[in-house]
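Note to self: keep these together.
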Amino acid sequence: MSDDVFDAFLIGYDVLKIPVIENGKSVWEEKFPLEKIEQLKKSVGMKKFSAQMMLCPVDISDGRFDVNKLSFYDAEIKREERNRELFFSIMDKRIISMSCWWDPAYGSKNGDGSVVSVVFIDEDGRYYLHDVEYLYFKDGEDVQSARYQCQSVGRFLKRNFVPLINVESNGIGKFLPEFLRSELLKMGIDTVVVAKTSKVSKELRILDAFDAVVSAGYLFVNESVKNTPFIGEFTDWNVDSNVHDDGLDSVAGAILAEPVKMPAVVGGRIRNVRKLPNIPFKIRTDFKI
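Structure:
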């Protein structure tokens, strides 16, 4: 919605608009000094900042990404043992957490892509899109194809030292988390599998994931990703486009998912988190009010 349309919509109403910055100064210096405002811009992205902090209407259909703001690197993730502690790094930057997301599909060449991706986060908050794999197979081989995909995902997890993977369980993904656990067990891989359901539209999810981190210049991409369709998807995408965005969706899921700390102890594992049992107890309810 443009400013003109927004103003026309409010004809006849009294409107009070106080953006957080006026004439280059913060209108609420005690709560939002300029340094904090700059941090907000980086953390939420310019679109949300403009809409929520500067009170400027934003049309999400204008959303697109600038590939020139991506930083590319050519390095592997290193795993070292130091005094019985594990140390992970990329380009000598210590990696403290990661997030892995599998957005499964039947993987037909003519249909939606099945994509798994992993993002690492260093101690300074930079994101490293380290590996993306598109999984394909022949039509009409559902069970065998699911097994093939799970085995491919298993090899992906092993080479990237992934302790936990999120599997989007919408649609085809409903049965895959348990199937993947079974295949990983056969492969001797102890990565934890977590089923996830996405309730936000794909377009908004992609915008939320990439807008802030790309605007801040905090998204680093491994050179190997150039050999996948991801860069083309990133360049061509906007909210109204009708281009393939399966890789974008997978990476968006990884960026937005709660990051998991990298294992710190040699031989250490991340265990499944179990809900505490419901234990009944008595409370007083005869309070006088």
